[in-house]
Specification:
With 125 residues, the protein is mostly helical. It has 5 helices and 3 strands. It has 3 domains: 34 residues; 46 residues; 37 residues, no CATH class.
Length: 125
């Protein structure tokens, strides 16, 4: 281990201390309500927002039943309902090498080949 022997209790205590310090410094007592499970919910919700595939989220969380994963779809919809339509960065790849480079940096394939040979990729801003 990098930092020596740590236990779950030590991590909880550290989170509690940081929470209290931030809540006092920022004057926001709601920060004291953040727990490790809150972070899990946030990560899963953001994962669904950026990659809207319930199977990816279910696999990430280790859910066997998709009913348990529907919570994150509802959270994502309620969090982002008032935002304007999703905005994307788009790129055109002319060959397989360019396509691979775009996929490696998070772009997703959108359409097939056009007359000029280009393929369209996108990723969220």
């Amino acid at each position: 281990m990098l930092f020596g022997k740590t236990t779950e209790n030590m991590l909880k205590n550290q989170l509690c201390r940081i929470r209290k310090r931030l809540a006092f410094k920022l004057g926001n007592p709601r920060l004291n309500e953040i727990h490790f499970h809150t972070l899990r919910h946030w990560k899963a919700t953001m994962l669904y927002h950026y990659k809207p595939d319930i199977l990816i989220v279910a696999e990430f969380l280790g859910h066997k039943d998709l009913e348990n994963t529907h919570l994150y779809i509802q959270l994502e919809k309620s969090l982002f309902k008032n935002l304007p339509n999703d905005q994307f960065i788009t790129r055109i790849a002319q060959n397989a090498v360019e396509s691979c480079k775009l996929i490696e940096v998070g772009f997703e394939f959108i359409t097939g080949e056009y007359n000029d040979g280009g393929k369209i990729f996108r990723k969220r801003k």
